[in-house]
Structures are given as C-alpha cells and as structure tokens.
Design goal:
homotetramer; mainly alpha; Tetracycline Repressor, domain 2; DNA-binding
Chain lengths: 212, 212, 212, 212
DNA sequence: CATGAATGAGGTTTCATTCAT
DNA sequence: TATGAATGAAACCTCATTCAT
C-alpha cells in the first residue's frame, strides 16, 4: 500500500439508493472473502471488485481508496465487538465482581471467536492501517464503558479505576489475540474462555484487596 | 525470464572473510533503522541496502530474498527475548509463586520495553511473516521453559501445567503487546510492569486453589 | 513481496472492448518488430510495450508474463505455417508422389521464406521456450496430416508410413532451417526450393522401392 | 547476456602451466554440466565456476567474458564433429556414391548422437551466439571438405558441386537436429541413421541423373 | 595466481488509481 | 452510474564483471 498515508478514509459518497447500499455491502463482504482466501498481501482492489461482481471503477465510487475500504471493513467489525461488549457492560452494572467479569469476558471472547478466521484477518488489517487514529478511538470508547462499569461494583473502590479498566482491557484483548494467532484449537479456546474469566476475576479482587 | 522459485529463508551464504561479517550485520541493523523510520510498508530492499551503505546486490548475497532478511531480524529479536526469559525462568526454579512470577514477568517486560519502537516494528514483521513456522517454534520453546519452571513451585500441583503455562505466556505477551500498540507512555509501562505481575500472581494462585 | 507463482502461458484476459483488441495485436506486432531490431536477448517487455505505444501495465493485462507473449507470437506463426501446410496436404490427396511432394514442399518453403527474418527470429523464441509442449504438439499435428496424405498415394504402400512421414517432415523443416540460419541468399533459397523437392521425391520413391 | 556483442571471444591467456590447462578444461567441462542441469537461461558464470570448483575470478582469468566461454565450449564440440566428418570424407575419396554417403552420414550421425544431451544443449548456445561468424566458418570448412569429396566420385559429374555439397550438409545437419529436438528415442535415432543415408544416396543419384 | 565480496544497471511484474466511453 | 482499459511508478531480484586482499 503505497504513497500517502491517510488521505481520506471517509466513504466517498453516502449511498442513498437501495441499490447502492447493496453494492457497498457486497464490496465490504467481498473484501473479507478475499482477505480470507488470499491474505492481506494479496488483497487488491481489482480482486475485491471482481469478487463483489462489480468493476473497479464502481468500487472507487464508494471508497476513495484502498485504505478506506479496509478501514470500513475493520470498523464494522470493531463496532460490532464494541457494541456487544458495551451491552454486556451495561447489563452488568451493579453485579458483584465475579458475575460481572464472567458476563463481560465471555461476551468478548464469544464475539471474537465467532469467526476466528475473520478476527485474525482483521488483525492484519489493523496492523496495515497502523497509526490510523480511529482504531484507537474504538479502544477509547470501550475503555470508558468498562471504567464506568467497574465503578458500579458494590462495596468496592478501586485505587485507579482508569488504569484498572485499561489493564483489564489489555489483558482481555491481548490474551485473546495471542491465543488466536498462535493457532487456536477449539479446546484451547474453551480453556481460554474459562481461564480469562478466572484471570480477570482474581486480578480485580487482588486490586481491590490491594487498595484496602 | 524468471521460471524458478526458491523460498528459502535461510541465509544464502556464510561470510568467510571478516569484511563480509561486518556487511551482514550492517544490513540487519539498517533493516531495523528503516523499519523504524519508514515502517514495514515502506521498507524496501533498496532502501535497506542504501542505509547500510552497500548495494542491493550485496544485500542479496546474504539474504536470498526480502522475507529472509525480515525473518533474520525478527529471529534475532525473538532469540534475545527468549534467552532472557529462559534465564529468568531457570533462575526462578524452586522459588515461591509470587517471587517466581515477579522475576519472570519483570524480565520479560523489561526485555520488550528496552526498545519499544523496535518491539512494535517487529510485531508488524511478525504479522507479515505470518504463517512462517519458526515464529511459532520460538513460542514453543518458551512454553516448555515456563512449564518446567511451574513444575518446581514448592507445595503446588497445577491441574494442567501445560495449559497454565500457555495461559501465562499468552497473558504476558498479549497484554504487553496490547499496551505497546495502544501507545505506551512511560507511566503506563510502569503500571503494566507492576500489574502484570499482580495479574499472573493472582491467577496462578487461584489456579492452585482451584485444583485443591 | 512476491510469494506466489503462476506460470500460465494462456492469455490473461480476453479483450471485450474493440479498443483492446487493437492493443493486443499492436503488442504482438511490436514483439516481432523488437525481435527483428534487437534480437531475443534484448527483447524486454518494456521495450515491446514502448514499441507498441502502450505502457508495460497494458502489456501485462493481456499476457501474464513474457513467456506467454513470446509463446503467443510463436504460436501465431506456427499456426499459419501449419495451416498452409495442411491445406497443401489436403489438396494433394491422391496425387502421384512427384506432384504431391512438389506441391507440399513448395508450400512449406514459401511459407517459411515469406519473411525469412521473422522465421529466423522465431527459431530463437522456439529455443527459448524449449520444453513447452505446445510447440511439439504443432509438430504432431503436421505429422499426422502428412502421414494421412502419404497413405493416399496411388499404387504405393510404405513400409512404415508413420516413420516415413516423420522423416519427410524432419528433412523439410530441418534443411530449411539450416539454410536459413547459415544465411540464405535469394539464390540459395531458390536452389533449396527446387532441390528439397528433388530430395523428398527421390527419398519417397526409394522408400517405396525398398518396400517392394 | 547483456551489453556488447562480440568484444573478444579469444581466450584471455593461453595457459602455459599444466595446472592452468587443467583448470581451463575443468571450467569448460563445468559449463557443459551446468548447461545440462540448468539450461542456457540459468547458466551463470558464478554457477559454472562453482561447479568447476574454482572462483569466478579464476574463470575470468581464462575467459574474458561469458560469451567467450560459451564460444569455446561450442567450438570444441564443432571441432570434434568437423574433424570426424573430415576424416570420414577423406577416407571416402574415390568410393562409389552409395558407399561414400553411407560412410560419411553414419560418421556424422554417430558423432552427434554420442551425447544427445550435449548436442542439444549446444544448439542453444549456438542460437545464443547467433551472429558470431566463427560458427559459420566451421560450416564453411565442412562445406569444402564435402565438396572435394564429391568431386572424386568415379564416373559422376555434378551440375553444381558447390550447391550439392551445401544441400547435402544442410540435410544432414538439419534433419539430425530436427529429430534431436523433437525428442529422439533410440529407435528413432536408429531409423534416422539408416534413412538419412538412403535420403542422401537417392538425392545424389538423382542429382547426377538430372545432370545427365 | 586465486579468491569472493561488491557493484548496479537492468529486467520482470504488480497494483492503486483514473477517465473515456 | 458503471465499466474496464490504460497508466506508470515502484518493488524485487539477477548476474556479468571488477578489484582489493
């Protein structure tokens, strides 16, 4: 991916007609297909257009450049995961720590593991998109959501909720990624799901104890 | 007219004269420099050769292709980190859990954080090299080292040491990476260093409790 | 970073718009021009594209690689010669040996000599393409055509028609090539045309006699 | 093979010491080996040197450039074949046509077929060396040898001996080459050996008859 | 004499992007 | 709007040849 960085990542035109919406989604979906079948390295705009059943020209009508396309795909995924995570957080407000962590972590792992192939492919996109700030902003949002949830744990006062939330997120996301990339067997995923809960539960409790 | 293909990652020729040893290292070093200054995407063999003060031809005398170069650089880094980790593990044999974890985790975080820029750049290489098995094999080695260490904790019998070791590694490496990639301020790194210890300590203890 | 390999000689895409048909032919023609003016050794895809008045990229839209281009050019030539030869063979069914040979040989020599420069240039391509089977398959076809023709000679039964046909072809093609490559003056070509007929006539007759 | 044509094809230095002679021959032999195992396209000076067990530098001490090396190899082969042919011609002076042709043709075919692989590889070199005049001059010599032989046939006066000799040579060499390149099975070679004799015998006789 | 490290022009091929139809 | 032909910069890699050691 050559030349300039981050020219315009915004979609070029907002599809108003139904037909266009279909096209836009077909392209995004095709991008994922190509990602899975060919890898990032071999994902080309032409190839994506082909898979989507449109011409390159059409692709460029909706996405100003390749980065914007990749970005849109990544964003959709992140949005989905973030939404699931947020919901789980909100549902957990006021629960005791153990239940809260269990609910949230399982929601996250399940979201990521639903399509491990897609998740992995998207890690590569994220790397490719590197500095792009929006990727981080997604993290920010989740960060705040978790932070707010942690503040509702009954009878607990964390020393530094902000940091604790950050740490929990990093563990959750980082560990999951690591397992995924090392080649996740179903058994391993199951273990991860259970022990990531354990991990965060004991961590948060020790944070609390520590605080006391 | 090309015709053939050879996808070896092995260095092409072992330098016999003193002069060439210098060259080989200059190239590897230059690769890191370019990685940092331009990013993976803009790392070209020509650019690396230029930076190293040699011609492309020379580069290709020692590395059969670009991948091999990147691989060599990554391998050197991984070897270093692995070596430090192994040492810490061996030094910790027989220590009580808390001390053991503290020693090992701190060694790992320090190794990774010594040059955050290099570490981050190498994550991208690792992504690029994707499937390459050797990357995984490094993980395997560390895995065994940690497993063996865990078996020496006095008075503790883990339900499934293999998995526990795997989990600890994933947490250690994954969380560190996540923090790094989200943009690590020195303060954050300090917090990570401390809390990653906490995290693993409490996890291992709860694993143990669980077993009982 | 390359990674894959595809060594198809098949044209990459069939032109659908009128414009591109023109382009494809311009490129093939340019290839011959370059072949004549620079020689195989100095025929580069860039040079061909330049001569054709298009960009390299365009060339690669229609020919997946250099070999495919050379192959296409060679094939066109061989097809033409083969077609002329086949026609002459068919027209000669049932003729007495002398007339038959005269008709066929003259058709062949005339086809090859129409553009001696092109013929010679293509010998080099054929060498370059070496093993490529299609080159041989052209020979096969002609072989059968000649064999079938020989079986129609009235009052003659060859001992081993298959071999006789093979021998006749080898003589016809080989001798012509030899003369061509040794530097064919018009006078020499004229002599060849006449004596190659003589050669094959007397050979076939002696084969027949031999059989009797 | 780039840049200039035909700078100097003469060996750079005439080896005076025994050791050098050995080296020179080892290199020439290695060139043939590489030719057979890798093909012309992949014959590089470095590869030849390696195979010969010397350094490239050494190779360049004896051959001023790659062309000169190839040329030397080709020349050696041609010289050998030419010598055998000449001897056969001289031995045949004064014989009747049939015996003469049989002796000469069989000598030629046997010489070429002794190492079909080498013969074929050398055709490619000859193509590569293209215009180089010395290749032709070898032909000239043989031409004269044959011509002189033909003039000794008892009781025969050819209309145009020069041309007849040329034609015989072209047939002999061309047909052999054609069979060789189309993939010569031992059976085919045997047939060629016999029928090439037949071919030339009947041709020469009909030439003679013609003259009368 | 021999070595082999270094050179760098030059070749092939890809792919994001534009624009006439 | 959609198409897909055209573009061309830029990447990777090779290999004949030289020259310091």
């Amino acid at each position: 991916m050559p030349v300039e960085m981050q020219s315009t990542l915004e979609p070029r035109k907002t599809p108003v007609q139904a037909r266009s919406t279909v096209t836009v989604e077909a392209i995004a979906e095709a991008a994922i297909q190509v990602l899975l079948s060919h890898g990032v390295e071999r994902l080309t705009t032409t190839r994506v257009a082909e898979r989507a059943g449109v011409s390159v020209g059409t692709l460029y009508q909706y996405y100003p450049n390749k980065q914007a396309l990749l970005f849109a795909v990544l964003e959709a995924h992140l949005d989905k995961v973030t939404a699931l995570l947020s919901r789980a957080c909100e549902e957990s407000h006021g629960l005791p720590i153990k239940a809260m962590v269990k609910h949230v972590i399982e929601a996250f792992v399940d979201a990521k593991m639903e399509r491990t192939d897609v998740s992995m492919a998207l890690y590569k996109i994220a790397a490719e998109l590197g500095g792009v700030k929006v990727v981080r902003s997604v993290g920010e949002r989740s960060h705040r959501t978790i932070e707010q949830m942690l503040m509702t744990v009954p009878g607990v006062q964390f020393e530094d909720v902000k940091f604790t939330a950050r740490m929990m997120m990093a563990t959750m996301a980082g560990t999951t990624r690591n397992v995924l990339e090392a080649g996740a067997t179903p058994a391993l995923v199951k273990g991860l799901r259970k022990h990531l809960v354990l991990l965060c539960q004991s961590y948060l409790q020790s944070c609390n104890a520590h605080a006391v």
